[in-house]
Amino acid sequence: MGDLTTNTEEAYYHCEQCGKPLFPGDKVQLDSEGIAFCEEHAATLSDLIAYWEPDLAEDEENAGWPEFFDDPEEVRAKIEEWKARLAAGGDVKLLQEV
Ligand SMILES: [Zn+2]
To answer: Which residues have C-beta under 5 Å from ligand 1, the single-atom ion?
Structure first.
């Protein structure tokens, strides 16, 4: 854990969970809404599936997906994609470089 206060470079993102500033070259999980998580707090594929699969089963009014997806088919397609990646490459985190 570095001393974050001495880093004066401008952060591109901040981790949604811990507030850690994320700089170019850092590995982050970034969603389509621009919400970022640091490597430590990024969800694994099984976390994502475990989160969204029951959410998709909820009534649309109670579900969380309409905030992030346009329709249930999009969520279902994402879950299928994650399951395929999980089967092919194991339970990894979907990280990208800032
Ligand atoms: Zn974090």
So the answer is: 15, 17-18, 20, 38, 41
91 CA distance to ligand 1 centroid (A)?
19
pLDDT at 5 over 80: no
The domain spans of the chain are 4-97
Nearest of 45, 26, 22, 32 to residue 92 by alpha carbon? 45
pTM of the model: 0.77
Mean pLDDT score across all residues of the chain: 90
Q: Whose CA is closest to 53, among 80, 27, 92?
A: 80
Answer whether 51's CB lies under 8 Å from 75's CB: no
